[in-house]
C-alpha cells in the first residue's frame, strides 16, 4: 500500500463571525436561564474536547454564553457546538471535531495564539501566560487495534506522519510491518492523527467501524 505524506495543509483564515447585539443578549439570557435550572450542577456530564483555554470545565460552563464567536474565529473550522449527547447543560458550548483538520493553536494564522481564545468575550476560554500547545492537554489519542489498518499489515502510517509532537512511534512486532503506538506523555490531543486517519475510507477492512481507528478522547477528571 503506497502511502503519501499525511500532513495537512493550512486553511485560509476567515473572519470572525459577526454576532449581533440581539444574538449576544439572547445567548446570555439562555445561559442565565440554564444556570437558574441548575447549570452549575454539571458534574457527571460526559467529559468534552474543549478548545484551547477551555480545559477548566467549571470556568467554561460558568462563563460561556453560547455566543459562538469562537466557532467563527477558528480558521480550521474544528470548533462546533456541543449536541444533546454531550449533556443538556453542554448544548451549544464549544467542542472540537477533528473530522477534517486539527488544532495547531493558529500557528500559521496568528503566530501560535489561538484565535478562539482572543475572540471569547467572557474569557470562558482563557489561557494563563505560561500556557503552551505542548502543555495544554486537550485530550489523548487512542488507537483501536481492531480497526487500525496498520495492524492489518497494510503499512499505513498517516497518523505517524501527521503528528507534530512525535507522540506516535512505529514498532515492528515479530517481523510485521510497523504499527503505531501512542506516547502518552507527548500527546496533547491536537487531533492531527485523527484528522488524517483513513480507516473508514480505505478499503473494507473495517466496514463495521463507526469511527476512525485513531480518535482523541477527552480526559476524564477525577
Features:
single chain; 222 residues; alpha+beta; Alpha-Beta Plaits; 2 domains; two-stranded antiparallel ribbon; 7 helices; 6 strands; disordered N terminus
Measured by DSSP, the beta-strand proportion falls in 5-15%
- What CATH first level of the largest domain would be assigned? Alpha Beta
Gyration radius (Cα, Å) is: 19 Å
The CATH topology of the largest domain comes to Alpha-Beta Plaits
Query: What value does the average pLDDT take?
Result: 84
Domain 4Fe-4S ferredoxin-type: 55-84, 139-173, 178-208
Protein name: 4Fe-4S ferredoxin
Cofactor: [4Fe-4S] cluster
Keywords: 4Fe-4S, Iron, Iron-sulfur, Metal-binding
What does this 3D model show about the protein?
- The termini are far apart.
- This protein is α+β, with helices and mostly antiparallel strands.
- The chain folds into two domains: 46-136, 2-Layer Sandwich (Alpha-Beta Plaits), CATH 3.30.70; 139-221, Alpha-Beta Plaits.
- It contains seven helices and six strands, in the order H-H-H-E-E-H-H-E-H-E-E-H-E.
- The strands form three sheets. It has a two-stranded antiparallel ribbon.
- Strand 4 (168-171) and strand 5 (179-182) form a beta hairpin.
- The longest helix has 16 residues, at 21-36.
Amino acid at each position: 500500500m503506497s502511502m503519501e505524506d499525511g500532513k495537512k495543509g493550512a486553511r485560509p483564515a476567515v473572519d470572525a463571525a459577526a454576532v449581533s447585539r440581539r444574538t449576544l443578549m439572547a445567548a446570555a439570557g439562555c445561559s442565565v436561564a440554564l444556570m437558574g435550572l441548575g447549570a452549575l450542577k454539571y458534574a457527571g456530564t460526559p467529559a468534552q474536547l474543549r478548545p484551547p483555554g477551555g480545559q477548566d470545565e467549571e470556568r467554561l460552563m460558568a462563563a460561556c454564553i453560547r455566543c459562538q464567536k469562537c466557532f467563527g474565529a477558528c480558521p480550521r473550522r474544528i470548533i462546533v457546538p456541543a449536541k444533546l449527547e454531550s449533556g443538556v447543560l453542554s448544548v451549544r458550548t464549544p467542542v472540537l471535531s477533528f473530522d477534517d483538520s486539527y488544532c495547531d493553536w493558529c500557528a500559521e494564522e496568528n503566530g501560535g495564539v489561538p484565535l478562539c481564545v482572543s475572540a471569547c468575550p467572557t474569557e470562558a476560554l482563557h489561557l494563563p501566560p505560561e500556557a503552551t500547545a505542548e502543555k495544554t492537554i486537550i485530550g489523548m489519542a487512542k488507537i483501536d487495534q481492531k480497526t487500525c489498518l496498520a495492524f492489518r499489515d497494510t503499512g499505513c502510517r498517516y497518523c505517524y506522519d501527521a503528528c507534530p509532537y512525535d507522540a506516535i512511534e512505529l514498532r515492528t512486532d515479530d517481523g510485521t510491518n510497523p504499527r503505531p503506538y501512542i506516547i502518552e506523555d507527548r500527546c496533547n490531543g491536537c487531533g492531527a492523527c485523527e484528522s488524517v486517519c483513513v480507516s473508514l475510507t480505505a478499503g473494507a477492512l473495517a466496514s463495521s467501524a463507526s469511527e476512525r481507528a485513531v480518535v482523541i478522547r477527552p480526559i476524564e477528571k477525577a
